[in-house]
Write a structure and sequence with these properties.
17 helices; mainly alpha; disordered C terminus; two-stranded antiparallel sheet; two-stranded antiparallel ribbon
């Protein structure tokens, strides 16, 4: 049970390793492994109902209904992968509830250290100019057109995706150990920070800031009254100092963040011109910010049923037409986007509400940094992507473990129980 669960969690984090394709989507080792565990995972399933299972079932039923109503104008592989991930996460959830917290901690450490080694090798290979195609299938490096140097991306398909996987793992690890600062945590923190540097991901430094904020909130809660009084001053000095350093730094990541900030806060341009300038300044940043920003500031969505949704793939077609000449060439048929804003176009406001009910049940009892980090990845991942389900699973592990830690200690049970129903005080969490 322990080894099966560890391998399942680790393979879920390896989003960019492929053994084949189904349509345009990658067939990853995680899918093959979970296929072998289907029978076993269902056998160890507990029979009682809980909020996670019920909310996921309702969400999947809504996805099915919307796509039946919109048949045949739907993306079949998107629907298939959505249901596959829902089944796989259900199996993984059943496995995870049968193991102790040490198993989850071991899995998170394995993910962090293995990614660190991969990113270091990618960084080293890129520095010396080594580009063996067979090696780069595992030691993955992203090379943008026209650039001589690349950005390592570990076992994922984007440097920023690797940064999210690392950051989510480290955030969960710290909470599962109650922010215990010892040699083990220091070594893991070092591996985490070095991994972000190796990846050269500007997005990664934003994730690091979320983790630092999480530690600051923990220290604030445990600190004396005098220490708490110093926090506003520390925050102001730190923010100003960071801004000065970034503005004058020659580091690639710092320069990218500075350029993006100048474009986004330029008051002299309208929304479309701002996005055009952002695309020219940093195409990667535009891919994450642009579609959502333009869609949410546009009135050109009257052809979509925003209450029911238009089925899988509707957002891709709408955005390709809407962003023609801005982000994509004229005549582009589809443009993939993350769950924000694509999900609301595909499955409507009703589906979006059902999705948030599911997420609230998964993240029950977790503080604001978890929600902030998950929100930051939503423009990059959708319900048919392994990246999104890794984030959900990682935070679900933490929610269940934290909510049942005292009960397990009292009962002497090695398993994890489902999280309790959300309380009114939890709903105030961002």
């Amino acid at each position: 049970m322990r080894k099966a669960t560890i391998w399942a969690i680790v393979l879920l984090a390896y989003t960019g390793i492929s053994v084949g394709k189904l349509g345009k989507a990658l067939l990853t080792p995680f899918h093959l492994y979970m296929g072998l565990l289907i029978g076993y995972g269902l056998l160890v399933s507990r029979k009682e109902r809980n909020y996670v299972h019920v909310s996921l079932l309702v969400l999947m039923l809504w996805v099915l209904v919307v796509n039946i109503l919109q048949f045949p104008n739907i993306r079949y592989t998107s629907i298939l992968y959505t249901f596959i991930y829902a089944l796989e996460i259900t199996i993984l959830y059943n496995l995870m509830r049968r193991v102790d917290m040490d198993t989850i901690l071991y899995s998170l450490k394995f993910i962090l250290y293995s990614y660190c080694i991969n990113l270091f090798l990618g960084f080293a290979f890129d520095t010396v100019g080594f580009r063996n195609p067979a090696i780069l299938e595992i030691i993955r490096v992203h090379y943008a057109e026209g650039e001589s140097h690349g950005r390592p991306m570990g076992f994922s398909t984007e440097p920023s995706y690797a940064a999210f996987i690392l950051s989510a793992s480290f955030l969960s690890y710290c909470h599962l150990r109650d922010h215990k600062w010892d040699r083990e945590t220091m070594m893991l923190a070092g591996a985490y920070f070095m991994s972000i540097i190796f990846s050269k991901s500007a997005y990664g430094f934003i994730f690091v800031a979320v983790n630092l904020m999480d530690w600051a909130l923990y220290i604030y809660g445990k600190g004396s009254k005098g220490l708490r009084g110093l926090f506003p001053l520390i925050a102001i000095v730190g923010s100003v100092g960071l801004g000065v350093v970034m503005a004058n730094s020659e580091n690639e990541v710092a320069q990218r963040l500075t350029k993006v900030s100048k474009v986004m806060f330029d008051p002299t341009v309208d929304s479309q011109k701002r996005m055009k300038k952002l695309q020219e300044a940093d195409g990667s940043a535009f891919a994450r910010i642009g579609p959502t920003y333009l869609l949410l500031t546009s009135d050109d969505s009257e052809n979509l049923n925003l209450m029911m949704g238009a089925g899988a793939g509707a957002a891709g077609e709408f955005m390709a037409e809407f962003l023609a000449g801005i982000a994509v060439d004229e005549g582009t048929e589809k443009l993939d986007a993350g769950i924000i804003p694509a999900f609301i176009f595909d499955y409507g406001l009703i589906g979006f509400v059902l999705l948030w009910i599911f997420l609230i049940n998964c993240f029950s009892g977790l503080p604001a940094p978890f929600w902030i980090m998950f929100f930051l990845i939503m423009p990059n991942a959708n319900v048919n992507t392994q990246l999104l389900w890794f984030g959900i699973s990682c935070f679900l592990f933490t929610s269940i473990a934290k909510s049942t830690e005292k009960r397990r200690a009292q009962a002497g049970s090695p398993s994890l129980d489902p999280p309790p129903a959300p309380t009114p005080t939890y709903l105030s969490t961002p």
